[in-house]
Amino acid sequence: MDIARSSIKWIVLTPLLFLACAAPASAFEGEQTLYEAAKKEKELTWYTAHYGSETAAAVCNGFEKKYPGIKCNYIRTTAQVAYQRLAQDQKAGLAVASVFSSTDASHYGRLKQDGWLQPYRTKNVAELIDAFKPYNDPDDMFVATAAGLVLITYNTSVVAAKDAPKKWTDLLDPKWKDHVSIGHPSFSGYVGTWVVQMRKSYGWDYFKKLELNKPRIGRSINDTVTMLNAKESWVAAGPSATTLQSKDKGNPLALVYPEDGAILMVSPTGILKNAPAPNAAKLFEEYLLSRECNEIMVKQREESVNKSVKPLPGARSIAEIKTIRPTYEEIDKGIPEVKELFRDTFGI
Question: What is the dotted CATH code of the domain comprising 148-264+322-346?
Fold first, then answer.
């Protein structure tokens, strides 16, 4: 009798279990409808400066896996190159990219002013870490989808931990002459924001003194990692994520969270008004805020913007460290200014 009752219960429950497995709840309201519309568009193109190429590829692969039938094409460049490319498209009347992600927050004021963005209020915004929500556009033209840190980085095979710089002004010490690397604010949004913040904290004299140490200057902030690995430089103002990715591959690199504050990068994403794939773009923006995407981010050593996803060992949560960041207005006004000052000071 007990066996028979158990069998009856199993017969009744099995279809329910099957249905639960076959039709999981949507991640956000309207997801399935948006997905069906996006599938008709078949593919989207994403101009991004948020991550390195390896991470951008991982994001696209994850999106394609979650939403079969939609191809994700990424074009990864530095922030200024990405913006120039987009501006050329727009002025020529070309609809190429559907999604634009820059590390230079000042780009979005110009994009709004020029009417190149379309509004979209993401349903997954509830998943966004609360501290990043103030960086979202009140008119829903862009949303914060990526975060990162600019830290002091160094090669442990030539610099002992006790001797590594502890604060940003330590990079001015003459002992680092010919051994410092930085990026260029005319190419990298990360570097532009770092330069604006250093000028805000210490005045332009900071860079006049840094020039005396004859730093090696790349374009992207990621170039500092390459130079550290080659021992072309020993210390750098570098990105946390790319440095940790390189360290995970066995390179002798380490991070210092500066006593005077790590530079917090908050990078937005917007959907182009003339997007060839507007529904796929909306779905992709939702994906960038999702837990699945941010789990990929963390595996790639990027910072999570999703409140449910924590960093891997070896990295510290943004909430645990001292961070500093210029205001939007300071970035918008400051980056064009520091580009010219930088060229005058460093001759490049």
Answer: 3.40.190.10
